[in-house]
Amino acid sequence: MAKSNEGRRVVAQNRRAFHDYAIEERFEAGLQLTGTEVKSLREGRATITEAHAGEMGGELWLFNAFIPEYHGGNRFNHETRRPRKLLLRRREIARLFGAVRREGMTLVPLSLYFTPRGWAKVELGLAKGKKLHDKRAAIKERDWQREKQRLMRAGG
Q: What coarse category fits the chief subcellular location reported for this protein (predicted)?
């Protein structure tokens, strides 16, 4: 399960995921990274809007996450969009695979951050895709809440 936000240093967020998916459950997973990937992340440069998690060889991987090359005089750089292994307990991985297979859910990365101890982590959301009418209803609700706040400030 994902822990509280205390002491996190967020590198990348996937705000689009909350619009496109209904997030049912959240998980915190470690990332297996190379040295230049960590250096690039520490500079705050990464994009996970197009990324997703999935199975490959019985393990959980993060696909299509963009971590740019590190330009600090290093000639041994990494591939920018290579698959990265996610580190979870075997039981959690089995549960996630079961949910994805049986219930048609998706694993979406929500944020990429560093813990206070310096570990790079990714917050995954077990999500179900929203239909177009659900997205419209969410936008309508958000606009109404904003208008209500405006009226309360002006009238109160």
A: cytoplasm
Phi first, then psi, for residue 53 (nearest 5°) are -110, 150
Burial of 149 (0-12, 13-18, 19+ CB in 10 A): exposed
* pLDDT score of 91: 92
List the structure tokens of 58. Answer: 């019985």
Q: Rounded CA gap, 44 and 81, in Å?
A: 16
What is the model's pLDDT at position 123? 92
Q: Domain residue spans in the chain?
A: 9-131
pLDDT of residue 34: 84
- Per DSSP bridges, beta strands 120-129 and 21-31 are antiparallel
| Per-residue model confidence (pLDDT) at position 74 | 67
Of the candidates 106, 141, 146, 145, which has an alpha carbon nearest to the alpha carbon of residue 14? Answer: 106
CATH for 9-131, among 1.20.1250.20, 1.10.1200.10, 3.40.980.20, 2.40.280.10?
2.40.280.10
Query: pTM for this structure?
Result: 0.76
Q: Within the chain, what is the greatest distance between any pair of CA atoms?
A: 62
- Segment (H or E) for 94: helix 90-103
